[in-house]
Amino acid sequence: MVRKKLQFIVSVWVVAGLLNVFAGTQVLAKTVEVFPNVFTIVHGEGSDSNSTFIITKEGVIVVDTRVSPMEAKKVMAEIRKHTQLPILYTINTHYHGDHTFGNQVFRGSKTIIAHKNVRRALTGSAGKDHLDRFKSFKIEGLDEVTVTPPNMVFEKRMEVYAGEYHLQLIHRRGHTNGDLFIHLKELKAVIAGDLIFNGQFPYMGDGYVSEWIDALHYMEDQDVEMVIPGHGDVGGKPLIIAMKHYLLNLRSLVQGQINDGASLQKAKETLHPVLKEKYKNFGKAERIDGNIERTYLELSLKEGS
Ligand SMILES: [Zn+2]
Fold first, then answer.
1. Are 192 and 94 contacting, i.e. CB atoms less than 8 angstroms apart?
2. Predicted local confidence at residue 26, as pLDDT
3. What is the pLDDT of residues 246-297, one digit of tens each?
4. DSSP state string for 4-35
5. How far apart are CA 67 and CA 15, in angstroms?
6. Cβ-contact 111, 90 below 8 angstroms
7. Which of 43, 63, 97, 109 is 20 to 30 A removed from 196 (C-alpha atoms)?
8. Considering only 9-13, 57-61, 168-172, 206-210, which range has the smallest mean pLDDT?
């Protein structure tokens, strides 16, 4: 398989109302052909999570299904512009609803793959609670969701061979306890899920800061030139480095506060303006306090143990 240059063949979903509010500016959802037959839909509506599909000779692999059946059907419509081949596999990079609540639309693939903790988080009352939480965000189309957990799970690593593609699914804890990223070795590409947010503060409510940094170290060490993040535009290796540096910086600032004996509240008051200024190009600044809190709790627990 020959790696070709990044092609930004953009087919914009030109439908009135398909605008997304992103960092104060309106960004159109768009489908980017990252490589021939590898497409990523970025800046989706309702939630701005990305979805990627790979068209192999045998059929299609879908990575992350977006936030609702309505949004997943848009992904399916994009796929059908390019091929009528069946959906072979659906893969969830982690359990968050903006990556899994469209799963039911891809049930025809028979196989929805994820880390085993994703199945746990989406099964029974846990799945219902997660959907209820998303409903509180008032995202359109969530009444149609039937939470559909993965039915093929793994613990550390899994390899998928489909047509001419070889996908290495690698579990690392970081953004959640069930993250996977996909290494497409021949393409020198990773589909990173929410281990990488591009251009915005990450959501860290389920995060493990130090392990997240380790996961990014590991990813950076791979032979990678193209990075498809969970949110934001596709880019190169600097996306991995930028995310890692944000987390390293956050951790060291919070550790400094703990060393000074600051309370969580004091740490937030001190660090919020620092982070906001340093990362003023990032969207979703409303996540800063949550980022400080999660890091503070993790580091405090470590000190207490
Ligand atoms: Zn997420």
1. no
2. 53
3. 999 999 999 999 999 999 999 999 999 999 999 999 999 999 999 999 999 9
4. ------EEE---TT-EEEETTEEEE-EEEEEE
5. 18
6. yes
7. 109
8. 9-13
| Strand, coil or helix: 99 | helix
Report the C-alpha gap between 109 and 107 in whole angstroms. 5
Task: Compute, in angstroms, the gap from residue 175 CA to the centroid of ligand 1.
Answer: 7
Domains plus CATH for the chain? 1-171 (3.60.15.10), 188-305 (3.60.15.10)
Give the Å distance between the CA of 194 and the centre of ligand 1.
5
Q: For 166-191, how does the pLDDT look when each residue is reduced to its tens digit (9 = 90+)?
A: 999 999 999 999 999 999 999 999 99
How far does the centroid of ligand 1 lie from the alpha carbon of residue 206, in Å? 9
Is residue 305 over pLDDT 80? no
Question: Distance from the CA of 79 to the center of ligand 1, in angstroms?
Answer: 23
Distance CA 128, CA 246 (A): 33
**How many other CB atoms sit within 10 Å of the CB of residue 84?**
7
Give the Å distance between the CA of 203 and the centre of ligand 1. 7
Å from CA of 132 to ligand 1 middle? 16
Q: Is the pLDDT of residue 304 over 80?
A: no
Q: What is the pLDDT of residue 50?
A: 97
Q: What is the mean pLDDT of residues 200-227?
A: 97
This prediction has a pTM of 0.90
In the reported structure, the alpha carbon of residue 97 is separated from the centroid of ligand 1 by a whole-number distance in angstroms of 8
List the structure tokens of 211.
Answer: 């392990």
DSSP 200-221: BPPP-TT--HHHHHHHHHHHHH
Q: What is the mean pLDDT of the chain?
A: 91
Give yes or no for a contact between 231 and 192, defined as CB atoms under 8 angstroms apart: no
